[in-house]
Design brief:
single chain; 3 helices; six-stranded antiparallel β-sheet; about 140 residues; binds zinc ion; elongated
Length: about 140
């Protein structure tokens, strides 16, 4: 599989048993259909950093691209840009054939980060109640 952005060969990386394809040239990541949601559900920040630490960042030369963002998985798939999230307006590229998703460098953490932001909003009242209780117990100033 080749990077849709620069044509470099993608390398297989694993996050918590989920297999992804990473471009070591531009640091983008390819998710097959459903994988992005699985990674998102891990609800863990610094996933990109984790991959970097585990697999390093070998220098990989760019290949040839013709200007179109083509799906690395299927021959005819064309990647279409759309906004994945509401809060951070992260733009990702999805294949209209296999529904796989291309995520550029540092966008993954924004996607996962938003998940946590949303949870924070949902939990705000619970956290406030907890902090009040903790403050009463531990003498928080
Ligand atoms: Zn690339
Ligand atoms: Zn595809």
């Amino acid at each position: 599989m080749k990077c849709p952005r620069d044509g470099a060969e993608l390398a297989v990386v694993r996050v918590e048993g989920i297999e992804l394809d990473k471009c070591h040239h531009c640091d983008g990541l390819w998710f097959d259909a459903g994988e992005l949601d699985r990674v998102r559900e891990l609800d863990r920040s610094g996933v990109e950093e984790q991959i970097e630490q585990q697999y390093g960042s070998p220098t990989v030369a760019a290949g040839e691209v013709d200007g179109y963002m083509r799906c690395p998985r299927c021959d005819n798939g064309r990647l279409q840009q759309f906004t994945y999230t509401y809060n951070n307006r992260v733009r990702i590229d999805r294949c209209n054939e296999c529904m796989g998703v291309w995520v550029d460098d540092s966008e993954l953490d924004a996607i996962i980060g938003e998940n946590q932001q949303l949870e924070k909003i949902a939990d705000t009242s619970a956290i406030k109640a907890f902090m009040r209780a903790a403050g009463a117990i531990f003498g928080r100033n």
